[in-house]
Write a structure and sequence with these properties.
The complex is a heterodimer of chains A (413) and B (756). With 413 residues, chain A is of the alpha+beta class. Helices cover 49% and strands 12% of the residues of chain A. Chain A folds into three domains: 240 residues, Nucleotidyltransferase, domain 5 (2-Layer Sandwich); 81 residues, Serine Threonine Protein Phosphatase 5, Tetratricopeptide repeat (Alpha Horseshoe), CATH 1.25.40; 60 residues. In chain A, strands 1-2-7-6-5-8-9 form a seven-stranded mixed beta sheet, sandwiched between helices. In chain A, a hairpin with a 7-residue loop joins strand 1 and strand 2. In chain A, helix 10 runs antiparallel to helix 11. Chain A is elongated, with a radius of gyration of 28 Å. Chain A starts with a helix and ends with a helix. In chain B, the strands form eight sheets. In chain B, strands 1-11-18-17-14-16-15 form a seven-stranded mixed beta sheet, with helices on both faces. The termini of chain B are far apart. Classes of the chains: A alpha+beta (413), B alpha/beta (756). The interface between A and B is large, with 42 and 46 residues.
Chain lengths: 413, 756
């Protein structure tokens, strides 16, 4: 049995702390990446600044493509409506690397990368925790840097980057600057837009399948904590250099992604999406619009997706959602046409089209026999897979229709 | 028939000769004090609305101590209005400053719910008071509001440990404004659990200090020998004791009852369950509202059935609705209904396991019958305290079973009625427990160079963690750099992290019901073992040793299992040694190697051996602490080898059974092993070692209590009527060897003789 007791007890007995600041022999970060210390080393934050040309090409676009783009209705889709009127170049792109995925005081933010358009270029600043003791000056510098910016663009910032940073600011008794800024979090939008096509909506998967960009020689995110620990142990910054590169690519990919999303969102209302948009993505965009309450844009996207030959399960899903939007917009005839099509082709993926048609036949067309048949078919096709409450509702409807038929045809029938 | 009449009949009946002691305590009027003048008028009004016009003297005293800024522990009997001792200062602080926050800790969720209801009643509709429970059942959606807006957060130690402290940055408001920390049922926090809690409190204080708060602690405890010592060990601050109850009480009788011997030779007595049933039946038939405490689910059911029959035809409702069982495993709504029935007097008798022991409000009853000693004097008084109204007389009867401790207590009433001998012990510096909480603390806030942890120097532990790459020293502080989230892997109920989980496969969906530390697993979770959980019995069907999982299924049997171990012990370090004694005593650190060999099935109540089986499991090793006494060569020679061995075994057996009288522990928390010639002492030696890695302080306390322990053992053996050992003293004759009783007595006399 492995037993730490003796070791600990022995340690407790000969309590003799080693001298502080035991230096390690590795290659310091300033010899690996050009930058400046934010406080005197050892025990410091380190800032690496890189200026990229506005013509830098990444993920199928040039950085300059993002210039002049207004956030527009993407702000609504991402839950940051306050940013609707802002231009992308007024925002700061932010991405953090940490020692763990749990948001808690024991997780260190080891690298904060920011990117912003500045004087004809794109400047990426990477705030690196060269020593854990350098956290406070690092956070203060970061807060100064973010001061006055209109908002942030993040990928899962709402649930990860910002709470992590907030915890670090609180622990250093600083007002948590980043959390007070409006945040354009791309992850929830990306999930809706590309969720119909892609199994994984991670940034890497989006790069690969949406931006058409393959990372080469990139360090996977899950290795970051152990690389950092290795760096702390040896003091050799070459270990963590790939983390800077990884972070830089994340930021650039966010720029490309947001630029694409802004573009798509602007065209959503007209359904006029660029040809490279896959039909499933167009339907996904419709879904994102629908969730954000933009019914007209949602309708246009679903229509466009169907027109572009969307097929399989996404087609049925899009059809059903489209019909529901039609109904909400008062476009009864269009909705009926879609439902009838789904029922006739046997392609409905939920009992909803049957129920909606049954309602129509019962109350509008006054054809309870037809209505009854539709509900019966719905129960046969979907009954087993439904929640008990929904199934009960269906059976209730059927019973009511049958009673009505009995009354009409008389008890003798 | 009135209670007095029933008691009179009992006194003159034939059962009276089984009474070993009958104590009567005269009734006592209340000692009242007016509300202090400084009390907030709205609070006074709220109290008046609840019909409270005065404070009892102990409540007033507690308020005064709290107002002086001192930490306090309040020790008064069950239902004496302890809750107001903390609710008044806490609510007062909120009324004075709305930003004030307080934290309540209760050992169970059921108690938290009761406390919440009580606070809500006090606040009524007029006081703006937000109190919430925060535990595993709290919906995710409600958590945010509780974190920021709750004046009072009611939780349990486990949730504080895993759910609150590791996320303290989200609990900013609570920690910045933390005024009071209330710890009720302090006597529950002893042994391993208490040692963990002391460390959780260290972490709590550390985080609170970070946010600039220094909370004041208000503790409550049942009667034990050392309430203020235990409380101050837990919070590591000086504590003021308030223990003079001003609550009124009617006349009370406490009866110790020993079932008659059926077989004097073998020391077998009539079943305590049957005796308890008959006694309770007499109460129920006379219309006396009665509560019966049983020690297992099965006995609960047996007793409830018996009492229903006894009540049938006499009480309205044919006994069904008027006699109820009450135990763990009942649904909360069922429990609430029974509690209400008891309070309103509709339920005339209930049979409960100790699920009812802790603070749950059922009002006051006329009679309590305990079928077997509940394990500690503190528990016995808590259970007895269920009987006793403000003015009418009440009775509590303790029916002993055959175990040594039960027999000792009914025959030595001064132990029971005198000053409580039971010490609540904790050892916050148990290396395993300490190291685990240092990890959690380092996760929560970096350690400063030279910073201690509750007064204990932990820099070496940090060096150790640094060597493993878990923390990193930078700028004079130790920063957590590991990816793991340490609190999640640390259970407050066991000392080591290597636990076996117990999986209940009774229902189609398996469910984890408990954890057992590795060393105990081979004793408690071998195949066919009976595992007890919330007074329910489970049988182990399969032990997956490699995966550390035991699969159990609910059963109802009338026995428990006890594993025999081939134990060898090696002394690693001797901490204390006292040769100036006829049986020289020592304490220290030991390595215990145990190989489980077989298990016995032992019947409840009579402690007869009713079956056995082999155990095939590998041996286990454990570092722990032990207390041992050695028999000098000349005494050993005098006894002869056979009697010596029997005497050593008898003494070891006895000490393990008697120690809980002093230690507030379960007999399973300690074990004995004997060596006819110890390589360490070079003499015949009896060791009593702690069953938890690292120990929690039992061994040191036994070393200290050596004389008292031996005296108690002697009194028990001397008073036992058996011929040569029985389950009630040194163990059945056949087990310890012939002549065990005499040999044990001889050793005890030597031990207690004049010093050499």
């Amino acid at each position: 049995m492995e037993d730490p007791w003796h070791e600990i007890r022995e340690a407790l007995r000969c309590a003799r702390p080693r001298p502080d600041g035991e230096r390690r022999s590795g290659i310091a970060v300033d010899r690996v990446l050009p930058g400046r210390y934010l406080s005197p080393p050892p025990g410091s934050g380190y800032l690496v600044e890189r200026r990229l040309s506005i013509h830098h090409y990444h993920g199928g676009r040039h950085l300059s493509d993002a210039l002049g783009q207004a956030v527009g209705c993407l702000g609504v889709l991402a839950g940051a409506p306050g940013l609707e009127g802002n231009l992308l170049e007024e925002l700061v792109f932010l991405d953090t690397e940490t020692t763990g995925l749990d948001v808690g005081p024991g997780t260190l933010v080891i690298l904060v990368g920011t990117g912003r358009f500045e004087a004809g270029g794109f400047v990426v600043r990477q705030f690196f925790l060269a020593e854990p003791a350098g956290e406070r000056p690092l956070l203060e510098e970061l807060a100064r840097h973010l001061d006055g910016c209109a908002g942030l663009v993040t990928f899962n910032g709402r649930h990860f980057d910002l709470p992590q940073l907030e915890s670090r600011f609180v622990l250093n008794r600083l007002p948590p600057a980043p959390s007070s800024l409006p945040n354009l979090d791309l992850l929830p939008v990306a999930r809706r837009v590309w969720g119909l096509r892609l199994a994984s909506r991670s940034l890497a998967s989006l790069e690969d399948n949406v931006l058409g960009y393959m990372r080469e020689g990139d360090v996977p995110g899950y290795l970051v904590p152990s690389l950092y620990r290795e760096y702390l142990r040896t003091g050799d910054a070459t270990t963590v250099a790939p983390v800077f590169e990884h972070n830089l690519r994340d930021i650039l990919s966010m720029v490309m992604l947001v630029s694409r999303l802004v573009d798509w969102c602007a065209r959503a209302a007209s359904g006029d999406l660029p040809p490279e948009a896959h039909p499933a993505d167009v339907a996904g965009l419709g879904r994102a619009c629908e969730y954000a309450g933009l019914a007209a844009a949602g309708t246009a996207c679903y229509e466009a997706a169907l027109a572009r030959g969307l097929d399989g399960a996404p087609r049925q899903l899009a059809s059903e959602r489209l019909a529901r939007l039609y109904r909400r917009l008062g476009m009864r005839a269009e909705a009926l046409a879609v439902w009838s099509g789904l029922v006739a082709s046997g392609q409905a993926c939920s009992p909803d089209p049957y129920i909606e048609l049954a309602k129509h036949y019962e109350h509008v067309a006054r054809d309870p026999v037809r209505a009854c048949a539709l509900v019966e078919e719905a129960i046969v096709r979907f009954g087993a897979g439904l929640s008990p409450a929904r199934e009960a509702a269906l059976r209730h409807r059927l019973a009511r229709l049958r009673r009505r038929l009995d009354i009409r045809t008389g008890p003798s029938a | 028939m009135s209670l007095e009449q029933v008691l009179e009949e009992f006194r003159s009946g034939k059962a009276a000769r089984n009474v070993t002691c009958w104590r009567s305590f005269p009734g006592r009027p209340p000692r009242l004090e007016p509300f202090p003048t400084w009390l907030h008028p709205s609070l006074v009004e709220a109290l008046r609305r609840r019909g409270i016009e005065h404070l009892y003297s102990h409540q007033a005293a507690a308020l005064q101590v709290v107002r002086r800024g001192e930490h306090v522990v309040v020790v008064t009997p069950t239902a004496s209005g302890k809750t107001l001792c903390y609710n008044i200062p806490v609510v007062e602080s909120v009324l004075r400053d709305d930003a004030t926050r307080s934290l309540y800790l209760f050992p169970t969720k059921a108690l938290s719910q009761d406390q919440l209801a009580e606070l809500e009643q006090l606040a009524g509709e007029t006081l703006r008071l937000k109190a919430y429970t925060y535990d595993g059942d709290t919906p995710q959606s409600a958590r945010q509001a509780i974190r920021t807006a709750g004046h009072i957060v009611i939780t349990n130690p486990d949730m504080l440990h895993t759910g609150i402290l590791p996320h303290h940055t989200r609990w900013l408001r609570l920690f910045q404004n933390l005024r009071y920390v209330v710890i009720d049922e302090v006597h529950q926090y002893r042994g391993v659990f208490g040692s963990h809690l002391a460390n959780v409190i260290r972490r709590l204080k550390r985080v609170a200090h970070f946010y600039g708060a220094r909370p004041q602690f208000i503790c409550c405890s049942a009667t034990i020998a050392n309430p203020s010592e235990l409380a101050s060990r837990l919070i590591e601050e000086p504590v003021t004791l308030v223990d003079e109850s001003g609550a009124p009480s009617g006349e009370r009788h406490f009866i110790l009852y020993n079932p008659p011997l059926v077989n004097r030779e073998l020391g077998i007595r009539r079943s305590c369950l049957l005796e308890a049933a008959e006694l309770a039946g007499a109460f129920v038939r006379a219309g006396v509202q009665t509560l019966v405490f049983a020690r297992s689910r099965l006995s609960t059911e047996v007793l409830a059935t018996y009492l229903k029959r006894a009540a049938a035809g006499i009480l309205p409702g044919q006994g069904e609705a008027t006699v109820r069982g009450y135990r763990g495993g009942y649904l909360p709504t069922q429990r609430r209904e029974i509690e209400k029935g008891l309070r309103e007097g509709k339920v005339r008798a209930a049979v409960a396991t100790n699920a009812l022991e802790l603070g749950i409000d059922i009002g006051r009853l006329d009679a309590v019958v305990m079928a077997g000693y509940p394990g500690s004097i503190a528990s016995a008084w808590q259970q007895a305290g269920r009987a006793g109204r403000r003015t009418d007389p009440a009775v509590a009867v303790l029916v002993a079973d055959s175990s040594p401790l039960n027999q000792y207590l009914v025959n030595q009433p001064e132990y029971f009625f005198g000053r409580s001998p039971e010490h609540g012990l904790v050892n916050p510096d148990n290396p395993f427990i300490l190291a685990n909480h240092v990890k959690c603390a380092a996760f929560e806030l970096p350690f400063e160079e030279g910073e201690d942890f509750g007064g204990t120097c932990v820099q070496p532990v940090l060096e150790h963690l640094a060597a493993q790459g878990i923390v990193h020293r930078s700028g004079g502080r130790w920063h957590w750099i590991a990816e793991s989230y340490p609190a999640e892997d640390i259970s407050l109920r066991s000392a080591s992290a290597e636990n076996f989980v117990v999986v209940d496969v009774t229902a189609p969906r398996p469910r984890v019901i408990g954890e057992v530390d590795r060393f105990s697993a081979s004793m408690l979770l071998h195949e066919e073992a009976i595992y007890l959980h919330e007074a329910e019995q489970y049988q182990v069907e399969k032990l997956d040793y490699a995966e550390k999982k035991a699969y159990v299924r609910k059963v109802e049997v009338d026995y428990y299992t006890d594993a025999s171990l081939a134990v060898s012990i090696r002394v690693l370090a001797q901490f204390q040694h006292d040769p100036e004694h006829n049986l020289p005593r020592s304490s220290g650190e030991v390595l215990v190697t145990a190989l489980p060999t077989m298990f016995k099935k032992i019947r409840f109540g009579t402690h007869e051996n009713v079956g056995s089986g082999p155990i095939h499991l590998p041996e286990e090793q454990m570092h722990t602490t032990a207390y041992w006494l050695q028999v000098p060569r000349e005494v050993a020679d005098d006894l002869g080898p056979q009697a010596l061995e029997a005497g050593l075994l008898g003494l070891g057996n006895l000490m393990v059974h008697i120690a809980p009288l002093f230690l507030l522990c379960d007999a399973r928390d300690i074990r004995s092993v004997v060596e006819v010639r110890s390589p360490f002492t070079r003499c015949p030696t009896v060791y009593v070692y702690e069953r938890y890695p690292g120990g929690v302080g039992f061994a040191d306390k036994l070393f200290e209590l050596h004389g008292e322990l031996l005296a108690a053992c002697r009194d028990l053996v001397r008073g036992c009527t058996c011929a040569d050992g029985c389950p009630s003293c040194v163990g059945p004759g056949a087990e310890a060897g012939a002549g065990a009783k005499q040999a044990t007595l001889r050793l005890l006399r030597t031990g207690l003789g004049v010093l050499r």
